[in-house]
Each structure stands twice: as structure tokens, then as C-alpha cells.
UniProtKB/TrEMBL annotation:
Residues 11-297 form the Aromatic amino acid beta-eliminating lyase/threonine aldolase domain. It comes from the Bacteria. Belongs to the threonine aldolase family. This is L-threonine aldolase.
Length: 351
């Protein structure tokens, strides 16, 4: 009996991809000799400075192992236990954090609001704040936006400004879940500052893992007053790496030569190619605009099952229906073509 060979690359998640060369090289460079622990090393200092250069402002930077910790600790820093966090109903902090934002904030409630294609409707902020203001209801404190959204769409600058205006009108802080922030910057062709502090973002959780690192997220406080004692939250939550240089060094490798943006642009381009090829298959329907590196589509059930039998992996429980296909920093045109060819063959067999 011969063993089935898996496809070279999957489309289930950009987490499936390996470490990109720039991050790997920086890790190897940091792995020479001894260095102080707990962030007192030159790599951590350089990574933080490079992030300040990237955003063109003086901000406070902290490094965490993963996105759940980064988002949850950042939100906890903005809230008291009797507050609430407003986010889109498909937001990762609501659907995929296992209650971590509530846990780390000692009970802050996450309240969801609607909006088309994964984007929070600014008018919904007014509704959620005004619907109740009595002491029996958790007081709204933060608006959390996901950029790009869980449905692969990207907030434009005017959309972010509208959210900022509604948030500021109600005295709310703005948190951005940027697990794929590089893909949003590449998609819009703007400067990172334009997507963050210039449109009112108080704290950004900048994703490194999905960008091509092994692990590591950066929590960037543009409102530095909100970062007070954040290092204690990191320590208490098990996020203070003793060998911090290995969390920080990949950021140096990614930022100093612009690899984070190049790789994000490639992932986006491959998603657009995948969308174009999927639209050529009459039995497939693309569900949302493809702004970044995700494509959502409905497949004939028999074809989806046949693809999985052949080893292709993709999720159908994320978002608002359909299957999700993620392109990564290392996805190639050949990968996309191979998948679509397999899909077409599966559709023909299912007729």
C-alpha cells in the first residue's frame, strides 16, 4: 500500500507556513554567544526601535508569544472589570480566544456588533453605547477592530476615521487586532502610521507569526499612558520570555529590510490569483471581497470532501459560511494552480 503524499503547501492557514529566511537568519545571528535575559539585550532594543521607525512615532513596545495573549493583555490594560469591549461579531477576540479577553481583564464583557463583510458598522457603536447607560450594564470602554478582518476584508482609511470619530465621541479607546497587519498595509499601499495612530488607534497588536516568524507578536502602545505597568501583566500572564532576544530578533530581520511588507504583498497577490481562478469554476462562489490574503468561497460538498481525501486542507468553520483559503508568505503561483486543478478535477468527478 503506498502512502498518499500531501500537497507541498496547504491553504488552511498562514500558520502552516514555515519561518521566512529573514526571520530565520536573524534567529541564527542572535544565537551566537550569551546575551542578557528578559529583554535587556540589544535585539529587543533594536526591534523596539525599528517598530518606532516603522510607525514614525515614539511608542511603547512589548513582545508576547502569541496573538491571544497580545490581544487579551492589551484589552485588559484598557479596561476595568466592569467595562465592555465592542467588536464585530466575527472578530477573533470574540470567536477564537476561548474567553481570554474576559479572563485576563478579570471579567470585562465582550459585546458584538454587526457589519457587512466582517467590518464593524460605526453606527452600531452609537447604538451599543446608547442602548443602556444604567449601572446594571457593563459600561463600553473599548472598540476593537480587526485589520484585516476575519473575512479577509480591509478597513479603508475613511472607515477607520469614522470608527475613531464615533469612539472618541463616546470616550472609548481603540484597539486594533493586527494579526495580519502587514497584509493590510500592503493592500492599501499606505504608511503604517496612517492605519494606526493617525486614525486614532491607541494600541496595536502587530502579528509576527502569520507574517513569517516562528512565534511572536508585538504590542504597540501609541497612547503611552495606557502602557503603565504593562510589563507586569506580561510577566503575570507568562509572556515575559527569559530569552527574549529570540522573540525580538525575528522582528529585526523582518523590519530592517522590509521583508514583512514584501512577504505580505506576495500573500495578497496569491490570494487575488486564487480568487480569479476560482471565479472560472461555475460551481464555486466567492463570498467576500478579497482585499488581503484570504479567500472565502462555497464549494460543492462532494468536491470539498474529495479535496480533503487527496490531502488538501482548508477550514469551513471560520467566518460566516463557506470555506476559507489562506495564502502565506511562501505561497507560489504553482501552489495556487495545483489547488485549482485539483478542485476542477474534484468537481468533474462529482457531476
Amino acid at each position: 500500500m503506498t502512502r498518499r503524499a500531501d500537497p507541498l503547501r496547504h491553504f488552511a492557514s498562514d500558520n502552516y507556513a514555515g519561518i521566512c529566511p529573514e526571520a530565520w537568519a536573524a534567529l541564527a545571528e542572535a544565537n551566537v554567544g550569551h546575551a542578557p535575559g528578559y529583554g535587556d539585550d540589544r535585539w529587543t532594543a533594536e526591534a523596539a526601535d525599528l517598530l518606532r521607525e516603522t510607525f514614525e512615532t515614539d511608542c511603547d513596545v512589548f513582545f508576547a508569544f502569541n496573538g491571544t495573549a497580545a490581544n487579551s493583555l492589551a484589552l485588559a490594560a484598557l479596561c476595568q472589570s466592569y467595562h465592555s469591549i465592542l467588536c464585530h461579531e466575527t472578530a477573533h477576540v470574540e470567536t477564537d480566544e476561548c474567553g481570554a479577553p474576559e479572563f485576563f481583564s478579570n471579567g470585562t464583557k465582550v459585546l458584538t456588533v454587526p457589519g457587512p463583510h466582517g467590518k464593524l458598522d460605526p453606527a452600531a457603536i452609537d447604538h451599543m453605547v446608547r442602548r443602556r447607560s444604567d449601572i446594571h450594564y457593563p459600561k463600553p470602554r473599548v472598540v476593537s477592530v480587526t485589520q484585516p478582518t476575519e473575512l479577509g476584508t480591509v478597513y479603508r482609511l475613511d472607515e477607520l476615521r469614522a470608527i475613531r470619530d464615533r469612539a472618541r465621541a463616546h470616550g472609548l479607546k481603540v484597539h486594533m487586532d493586527g494579526a495580519r497587519f502587514g497584509n493590510a498595509v500592503a493592500a492599501l499601499g499606505c504608511r503604517p502610521r496612517e492605519l494606526t495612530w493617525e486614525v486614532g488607534v491607541d494600541v496595536l497588536c502587530f502579528g509576527g507569526t502569520k507574517a513569517g516568524m516562528a512565534v511572536g507578536e508585538a504590542v504597540v502602545f501609541f497612547d503611552r499612558a495606557l502602557a503603565s505597568e504593562f510589563e507586569y501583566r506580561c510577566k503575570q500572564a507568562g509572556q515575559l520570555a527569559s530569552k527574549m532576544r529570540f522573540l525580538a530578533a525575528p522582528w529585526v530581520g523582518m523590519l530592517r529590510g522590509g521583508a514583512w511588507l514584501r512577504h505580505a504583498a506576495n500573500a495578497n497577490e496569491m490570494a487575488r490569483l486564487l480568487e480569479r481562478l476560482l471565479r472560472e469554476v461555475p460551481e464555486v462562489k466567492v463570498l467576500h471581497p478579497v482585499d488581503a490574503n484570504a479567500v472565502f468561497a462555497t464549494l460543492p460538498p462532494a468536491a470539498a470532501a474529495a479535496l480533503r481525501v487527496r490531502g488538501w486542507r482548508f477550514y469551513d468553520f471560520i467566518g460566516a459560511g463557506g470555506a476559507r483559503f489562506m495564502c502565506a508568505w511562501d505561497t507560489t503561483e504553482e501552489d495556487v494552480a495545483a489547488f485549482v486543478d485539483a478542485l476542477k478535477a474534484a468537481v468533474r468527478e462529482g457531476r
